[in-house]
Specification:
The chain has 303 residues and is of the alpha+beta class. The chain folds into three domains: 161 residues, Jelly Rolls; 98 residues, Arc Repressor Mutant, subunit A (Orthogonal Bundle), CATH 1.10.10.60; 28 residues, no CATH class. Helices cover 43% and strands 19% of the residues. The chain has a six-stranded antiparallel sheet with strand order 2-3-9-4-7-10. Strands 1-8-5-6 form a four-stranded antiparallel sheet, with no helix packed on it.
C-alpha cells in the first residue's frame, strides 16, 4: 500500500497575499505519491482546505476526513496528508496566521458565512496574478478576518469564547488593516473601540506580548518580508519602512537590528537571490547537472 502524500505535493500554483498563502491543488491521478508526508515547520500557522471539485480523503491529527466539492475544513498547516483524491479533484489550500484552537469540522460552502468565505477565496485566487503586492496584502487581511468570522460562527453553539478573547481578535484584525498608518497607536485604538487604554492593556496582558509590542513586531515582520521580495527591489529601505508606519529611518534601523540582530541593509543583502554569473549560466546550459552539484564547476574545466 502506498504512503500518503503531502497536500502541497499537488500544488500547481501558489500566490502570496501578505501573511496569507494560497496554493492551487490539482490531483492528476487516483493514486497518491509513493512516499510519506513530511511535517512542515509552520510555527503559529493554520491551514484551510477548500475543495472546488472532486473528492479528497485527508488524514489530519490522526483523523480521516472525507471532503466533497464545495466543502472546506480548518486543519494543521504543518502536517496534513492526502490519502486519496479523485482524478478530477481541484482544491485551494490557504495558509494563514492561527487564530485560536482548531475545530476540525467540515463546513459547507453553499450557505451562510461559509459560502461568503468560499467564494471570496476563489475570487481572490482568480485575480491574484494581476494585483500589486500591497493590494494582495490587503486582500490577505480580509481573508484572515472572514475566516475568523466563519470559524467563530461554526464553533459558537458548542464553545463559548470569552469577551477579552473576542476583543483581542477584533483589535488584532483592526491593526492588520491599518498597519501602514503611522498614526496607529493605542490612543487611536481606544477611540476606535470606544474603550479605555487600560482595558486594551488588560485584554493583551493574557497573551504572550503587549499590544504595543504586537503592533511594532507586525510592522517589523512586514518590513523584513518586503526587504527580501524580488518584486520590491526598486524600493529603498526608507520607502519600505515609511510604508509600514515607521516615522524615521533611524528609529526603524534601531528596532530592526534589535529584532533581527543585523541592520536592514545587511538583512536585505543576505536574503536576496544570488546573481548567476554569465559563465555559470552558460555552463549550466551545457551541463544541467551542475545546478545540483556545488563542485561541478571545477570539474567542468577539466572537460
Amino acid at each position: 500500500m502506498k504512503n500518503a502524500s503531502s497536500l502541497r505535493d499537488h500544488a500547481v500554483r501558489t500566490l502570496q497575499f501578505g501573511d496569507v498563502s494560497i496554493a492551487e491543488l490539482r490531483i492528476t491521478s487516483h493514486a497518491v505519491a509513493a512516499r510519506s508526508a513530511s511535517a512542515l515547520d509552520r510555527g503559529s500557522l493554520q491551514a484551510l482546505l477548500f475543495v472546488l471539485s472532486g473528492e479528497l480523503r485527508l488524514l489530519n491529527r490522526g483523523q480521516v476526513l472525507r471532503l466533497h466539492a464545495h466543502e472546506w475544513i480548518a486543519c494543521d498547516a504543518g502536517n496534513n496528508a492526502l490519502l486519496h483524491g479523485t482524478a478530477n479533484a481541484h482544491a485551494l489550500l490557504v495558509t494563514m496566521p492561527a487564530s485560536g484552537d482548531l475545530c476540525t469540522t467540515v463546513h459547507s460552502g453553499l450557505s451562510g458565512v461559509d459560502s461568503v468565505l468560499f467564494s471570496f477565496i476563489s475570487s481572490v485566487m482568480n485575480v491574484g496574478d494581476g494585483l500589486t503586492p500591497q493590494t494582495r496584502a490587503e486582500l490577505g487581511n480580509a481573508v484572515i478576518e472572514l475566516a475568523a468570522i466563519a470559524l467563530r460562527a461554526k464553533s459558537a453553539p458548542t464553545r463559548r469564547t470569552s469577551g477579552p478573547k473576542i476583543m483581542r481578535d477584533r483589535v488584532e484584525t483592526f491593526v492588520r488593516h491599518h498597519l501602514r498608518r503611522s498614526s496607529l497607536s493605542i490612543d487611536e485604538l481606544a477611540r476606535a473601540f470606544n474603550c479605555t487604554k487600560r482595558y486594551l492593556h488588560k485584554v493583551f496582558s493574557e497573551g504572550d506580548r503587549s499590544l504595543n509590542r504586537f503592533i511594532w513586531d507586525l510592522r517589523l515582520e512586514r518590513c523584513s518580508r518586503d526587504l527580501t521580495s524580488p518584486d520590491l527591489l526598486d524600493r529603498s529601505i526608507t520607502e519600505i519602512a515609511l510604508s509600514w508606519g515607521f516615522r524615521s529611518t533611524p528609529h526603524f534601523s534601531r528596532m530592526f537590528r534589535k529584532r533581527f540582530g543585523v541592520s536592514p541593509s545587511a538583512y536585505r543583502l543576505s536574503n536576496l537571490p544570488k546573481p548567476v554569473s554569465p559563465a555559470a549560466s552558460r555552463a549550466s546550459e551545457r551541463f544541467p547537472w551542475m545546478a545540483h552539484d556545488p563542485h561541478a564547476e571545477r570539474r567542468t574545466h577539466a572537460v
